[in-house]
Amino acid sequence: MPENLPYAYEVEGLHKQFDGSPRPANGEISFHIKQGEFFGLLGSNGAGKTTLIKQMIGLVRPDGGTVRLLGRDVFTHPRFTAATVGYMPQTAFALNSLTVKEAVYFSAHLRGVAAKAARRERDALLELLGLTHLAGKVARQLSGGERRLLQIAVTLVGSPPVLILDEPTNELDPSRRRQVWQLFRELNQRDGHTIILITHNAIEAEQVIERVGILKEGRLVALGAPAELKSSLHSQVRLSITLGDAQVHGLPDYVRVQSEHRGKVVALVDSADLPHLTKDVDLTQFPEFTMHTATLEDVYVSYA
Amino acid sequence: MSATHDKKLGLSFLGQVWDLFRIQLTNWRWSWPQMVLTGVLAPLVSIAALGLFARNSGHAATEYVLTGSVTMAILFETQNKIASNFAFMRGNGAFEYYAALPVRREALIFATLAAFSILSLPAIAVTLLLGSALLDVPLTFSPLAPLCLLVALLPSAGLGAFIGSRSGTIEQASSLSLATTLLMMAAGPVAVPPELLPDALIWIGNLNPAVYAADSLRHSLTAPDASRALADMAILAIFAGAVWGLTSTRMHWRARYGRRAS
After folding, report:
1. pLDDT grade, residue A304 (50/70/90)?
2. Is-above-0.90 flag for pTM?
3. Interface with chain B: mutation pick from A3, A95, A122, highest number of B CBs within 10 Å
4. Which of A81, A283, B28, B76 has a CA 20 to 30 Å removed from the CA of A24?
5. Phi and psi (nearest 5°) for A106?
């Protein structure tokens, strides 16, 4: 980033505790996001991601600390913040009684796009997201995935320079997911949008994000490029095992199981223990067995 | 990408109101006939029930029943509907959606008021015309009537917005607003002449905007009296200012440092 450009976001000492809550939703959080950066925010449910984001767009007031957007305080420049940031919440769609084309048009027009340009931009976005054939359909009649695509269109229309996307690919089928990730990549790399992505899906996020912050119990416990964070787990290896007839409790203690679902196990092993593993476990008993270096998801799970 | 994005900070205030007004009307494009039906039902029942007794109490009493019933239609169509609408918007994330756009909360409040005022007109007109025929009360429209009607709508619409924006659920907002409507109809000479009410209720009625709304309608629709209609409107405007001010400061919207808890 050139020296003279302000950061997209400067978050300093942000603190928020809701009445009646035993611990802060956000505790002394500080980080910067550069303009044009693709930043990921990971954290389990209740980690404080939504509270942090709502403070970053000025919807929730902090008890302490500051948030600056492109050099301006978000709470003293609310209109600037609203015009600069496109926010896609994870919650229900607010314009459910409007048709697809009305929802996108009004969102563009309320962002200050002239009526003619708003219609043009709406049509282009609907085409891009494969929603043109649904343009006249009322939003509440759409499937979950279609509504998610509409929410993406509503967020992108008007081309706000900063995009905050909360679980944008939830409910999308795999091919739509790929299409949407490609779109976000282009918006970031080709058009220079700053993108802040909130997600649980570390594996998908790893494909696009440049830096990641991991929140745990309201605190930022890790911040850096995925490769940097993964280097902290370099001494570990990730195992993906399909158990077949084998039992998970038959694995040695040094195999640290991170998840088990329908006979598929993901585990971490210290690389020093690998020679023992090949001796202690008959790996041929498993229908499927893969081993690779740690992923961003392993980093996420190690902090969670 | 612009570093500051200064040139495009959204629409003018009136532009926001116009867009939000159209969004609100669009939301009701399929269900407005049901709205009219429900809005007419209670006032017509009131006309039928109170009209039976009022006929024996003279012309003034039937005028009270008619304008009181129109006031009831206003309360049902604006206060109750706006309370439910605001609670619904709060629940489905619409407040958050609009607050995250360059939109002022006052624009949303004005647009909602305007949309529900338009939507309430059929119910008010039906109540007025049918009531006039059923009660045999001739209508004498004063030029002040449209203004009286508008000003009569303001406090109840504001009260609905306040109840809806502060209620946790749509059910809570609906019951609270319905209870308020019934209290406002009963507290003072709204649909019943003061001669037939105890002194305590007449005194309480001085604090009830529905009394002034019914009065202003009476002084502009059935027994025109410009000076009294203007006096009623002035008091209604004060009520409206207070309740709209309260709503716009207490409604959840964007956070500001000035409102930070200590």
Report:
1. low
2. no
3. A95
4. A81
5. -65, -35
Q: What share of chain A is helix, strand, coil (3-state, %, to 5)?
A: 35, 30, 35
3-state secondary structure of A239: strand
What is the strand order of the sheet A211-216 is part of? Answer: A85-88, A162-166, A194-199, A38-43, A211-216, A219-224
Rounded-to-integer distance, Cα A201 and Cα A168, Å: 11
User: In A129-269, where does DSSP find H-type helix?
Assistant: 144-156, 174-189, 202-206, 226-231
Q: What is the C-alpha to C-alpha distance for residues A164 and A1, in angstroms, rounded to an integer?
A: 20
Contact B102 A58 (CB under 8 A): no
Q: Which of B4, B6, B10 sits opposite A82 (nearest CB)?
A: B10
Structure tokens at B219: 């002084």
Which residue, A102, A166, A169, is CA-closest to A140?
A102
Cβ distance A294 to A238 under 8 Å?
yes
How many residues does the structure list for chain B? 262
Mean pLDDT of A138-163: 94
Q: Quick one: tokens of B156?
A: 């109840």
Taking the Cβ of residue A161 and every Cβ of chain B, the question of whether any pair is shorter than 8 Å is answered with yes
Looking at A97-170, list the stretches that DSSP marks H as alpha helix, in order from N- to C-terminal side: 100-110, 115-128, 144-156
**pLDDT band of B255, cuts 50, 70, 90:** low
Tell me the C-alpha distance between B21 and B178, whole Å.
Answer: 25
Q: Residue A124's CB: how many other CB atoms inside 10 A? A: 13
Number of H helices and number of E strands within chain A? 10, 14
Q: How many Cβ pairs within 8 Å bridge chains A and B?
A: 120
The Cα B17–Cα B35 span in angstroms is 23
Within the 212-241 window of chain A, which residues sit less than 8 Å (CB to CB) from chain B? Answer: none
